Amino acid sequence: MILQIKNLHKIYKNGTHALKGVSLDVKEGEFLVIIGLSGSGKSTLLRCINRLIEPTSGTINFLGKDITHISGEELRKVKSKIGMVFQQFNLIKRRSVLTNVIAGKLGSLKTLDSIFEKFSEDVYKEAYTSLETVGIADKARVRADSLSGGQQQRVAIARSLMQHPKLLLADEPVASLDPATSNSVMQYFEKINKELGTTVICNLHFLSLVRRYATRVIALKAGEIIYQGLPSDIDENWFRTIYGEEAEEVEIR
Amino acid sequence: MNNAPPEIQLHPVQMIEQDKKKKAKYNFLKAALLDIFLVFYSIIVVQRAIYYKFIIELRELPFSWSTIFVIFAISILIGIFWTSTKTSLSCRLFGIAKDNNVSRWTTEIFGWFLFNITFIAGWIVTKLSIVDLFSSEGIMGAQRIFGALFQPEMGIFDDSLFAIIETIYIALLATIISIPPTLLLSFFTARNLMKDNKLSFTIYYILRVILNFIRSIEPLIWAIIFSVWVGIGPYAEMIALLVHTIASNAKLYSEAIENIEEGPVEAISATGANKIQVVWYAIVPQIVLPFLSFTIYRWDINVRMATIIGLVGGGGIGTMLMQYQGLGRWHEVGLIVLMIAFVVWVMDYISAKIREAIY
Q1: Residue A22 and residue A224 in contact, taking contact as beta carbons nearer than 8 Å
Q2: Domain limits of chain B?
Q3: Which pTM does this prediction carry?
Q4: Is A111–B267 a contact, with Cβ atoms under 8 angstroms apart?
Q5: What is the pLDDT of residues B293-312, one digit of tens each?
Q6: What superfamily does domain A3-90+164-243 belong to in CATH?
Q7: CATH code 1.10.3720.10 for B147-358
Q8: Contacts of B287 in chain A (CB under 8 A)
Q9: Which of A108, A197, B73, B255 qualifies as a FRET site for A120, CA 20 to 30 Å off?
Q10: A171: distance to nearest CA of chain B, Å?
Q11: Radius of gyration of chain A (CA)
């Protein structure tokens, strides 16, 4: 068991009860997809896992260790083992692709070295390897904001690969991409999951992508888990329960 | 999934209720204080400015603490009574007024009343007089000055050119020296970086108060302070500009830090980077350009301010202007004013062009 979450609650300062007692286990090597409407608590859940957001109560076990209340150096160690990819890519826009990828390594670099950008040969090699994994090593020297959305997301994936993550979190990684690009970006997640054996937890909107890539699906509604199971088991009825009566499935290839 | 401890599920609701009650009490207190002040203000203005000075035209205003105290006591009574009826202006401001026609009327009438007495009192204090503006004596003086402006004395061109270059350099030095301390301060006065723990928030708060205080004192006043400290002259002028530049730009810089995109910060912290690395990788690249732009603009402002500080003896073109003005040599003054106008225009143009180019 790589991740165990028990009875997790998150209440924001404004009183929003975003997570209402979420419990879930994630096995090593899984490709877990979380679905649900906007505001159902998907992003909050992901951000609680790597403690970008402090959960209000409940416990999070990562690699057999309770990480709910750790802080400082210890927390940074854990964060450096969990990669994260965001909907808006969140690259450093004015820096080169290479610098962006190396930024993934910051957790294990000395502060002064990272400020003066004194990186060892190994770090550069590693950065090129990660860029090759996502197929854009030729763009290493260009500015990050000159790339297209899909390419930027691949840089973000390469950045998270620098962490050699045990767990990769992806918060709606394809929500701002077009359908064709979405599919290709998802294929890189699949590749990382299958070839490197990294556990992936991913928030998604499109059911067709879910069916294609997920090994297991969790559906959140108003901060509670209402469905757990195989992607193929989500039928019309479940779909309406998760997304509401008005919903209609959109096909994306 | 409903086996969560009950206190967690009740907690937010209760908290919100409690907050509301606390807020209502607090708002009432604030409204009462504001009402007392407003009533006190209106009585004082009406009595002293409008009645004494305007209606019975006293030259010397009578002043006694006991009258002020009596007025204050009366306003406390009226203020608290008015607030408790929930129809006052401040009740409406803090959202505790009853939504009825009475409170709407009282608010409107009292608002207009406050505006009018303030305007009238201002008029009386300024000694506004249309007669003076169009008296024949006044118009002749104006003609003399404007006439001289258009016939500048070119004999002092060398001297004034040298003086204005001095002014530009004073401004430039103040701007350059201000950069490192401003950079450092701006990170400690950015709310989003300092709000996480109590210690850093205290530092943030204290620094903000100090900087606000420094900024609220005009560079001209700083120049007077420093001319006593380091002796009158360009050095005092430069330090005065420097102090004010640091305080003002630290605010602009820190606001730029507060307005950055949060995404990269989140992404870099998620890699396990420490605070310094997050600042360097996620924040600094986003603020370099705004910082540069503020600094260049500040140089432009400093040139204008250095001229004004020169008026009290800081050196440069301002001092020269003051000397010739004291001698009543209007043609020389004309040349200096034209030169200042030209340089300010050029600086304005250049700084605008540079700021456009770097974005």
Answers
A1: yes
A2: 11-128, 147-358
A3: 0.73
A4: no
A5: 889 889 889 988 998 888 88
A6: P-loop containing nucleotide triphosphate hydrolases (3.40.50.300)
A7: yes
A8: none
A9: A197
A10: 11
A11: 18
